[in-house]
TrEMBL record:
Single annotated GO MF: oxidoreductase activity
Protein name (Swiss-Prot/TrEMBL): NAD(P)-binding protein
SUPFAM superfamilies associated with the record: NAD(P)-binding Rossmann-fold domains
Organism name: Exophiala spinifera
Keyword NADP: yes
Pfam families: adh_short
Amino acid sequence: MFHTLRAFWNQSFFIPAPTVTEKNLPDQTGKVYLITGANTGIGYQVAAILYSLNAKVYVGARSESKATAAISSIKSLHPSSKGGLEYLHLNLSDLSTIKSTAEDFMRRESKLHWLDNNAGVMIPPSGSKGAQGMDLQFQTNILGPFLLTKLLLPVLKRTAESEPAGSVRVSWAGSLAVELGSPKGGMLWKKTPSSSEETLDDSKDIRTNYSITKAANYFLGNEFGKRFGERDGVLHNSYNPGNLKSDLQRHTPKPLLWLFNAMLYPPVYGAYTELYAGLSQDLTIKDQGAYIVPWGRRVSVRKDLEDEVAKEDGQAAKLFEWCDRVTREYA
C-alpha cells in the first residue's frame, strides 16, 4: 500500500522538470518513427516535436480524415521542417487489419528507429467489443500493439544493425493504473468453455479491464526485451506518460473528469515522458523493460508486478504466450 501511495504522489505532484524536450534534442534528419494514435493528444505532440526536428514520422491512426487534419496542423506549426509526415492506416481494434498495416509500412520504409505504442482506449461504454468480439480495451491496448510490434520486429532489427545499440526502440503505454488499479500479479484469467486453455478474464468492470491492459503493457515491454531485445539490438520499455488532458478521457463520467482536471497537465508534458523513453541517451541496451514516469524518470513498479517479470513462468511470460496464441492466425 505504501508503494502505491508513493507512486501516486511521485507521479502526480511536484514532478521534476523534463530532461528531454524539443529544446535539447538533436536534429532528427534521417530518422523514421511510427507513433500510434498520433492524430490527437500526446501522440500528436510527440509527432509534432519529432517533425519539427526534421524526422520522418508516420501517424498511425484509424481515421484518415483525422490523421490528415493532424498532419496539416503540424505542418502549419513547423513550416521550415525538412522532415516528413505520413498517414498509416492502423485499426488496433481489428486484428485482421494489422498485418496489412505492417506490410504497408515495410513497403514504404526500410528503417524504423522507434515504434511508440502510444494509442489506446480508456474506459469505453460498458460492453464495447473489438472486431474479434473481445473486450475493446484488451484488443486495442494489448493484442493490437502486440501483433503490430511482432510484425515489425524484422525492420527494427535491420535498423539496429547500423545504429548504436539501444538507440532503436519500442515503447509501450502504461499509466498510473499499472500501480493503482491492476489486480495482484497484474492479470486475471479464466478458463475458456471450449478448451482447457486460459484467457484473460474480461468479465470484470471496465475500469479493472483498463488497469489490466496497462499492467499488460508493462509486462510486454519486459517480455519483448527478454526475448528479442539484446539479440536484436533493440531496447523495449514502457511508460506512464502522466496525468494529462487528452481525448483518452472522452468516455470518463463528467463528475470524475472535474475531479481529474485538478491534477491534469497539458499533453506536451506526456510527450516529454514518451520522448525520454524513445530517445534519451540515459537509457542503454541493458535497460530492457525500463519503466519511465513523468516527465522522464526511470522507477520501479509494485513488487508483485516486478516479481512476475522476474519469474520464468510468471504472469508476464503467460501474457506473452496468450497474446501469441490469440494473434497467430492474423500474423
